[in-house]
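hiii, so i know i said id send this last week but things got crazy w the move. better late than never?? heres the sequnce for the chain we talked about at the cafe, plus the structure i predicted for it. fair warning i was half asleep when i ran it
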Amino acid sequence: MADVQGVTGDRLKSFIERLETLEDEKRELGEQIKEVFAEAKGEGFDVKVMRQLLKLRKMKPHDRMEQEELLDVYKSAIGML
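okay and structure toks below
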């Protein structure tokens, strides 16, 4: 492919093709994730709670503890505890 105004066609095409492949893989992973959630739901697990657990597990322990403490303070402030 030719260069057009400083853009190398072959290099650009390479990036586009790699991104297309990654988008396909991302779509496939999304479908697999949905299937796992559906399977868990079918066995009686609460998907919303599972999503919360996933979010919490991504957090550092200190950040998670800080957030839980603040949540308790807020709950107490509005009479939920």
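btw The chain has two domains: 1-45, 46-81. thought thatd interest u
miss u guys!!
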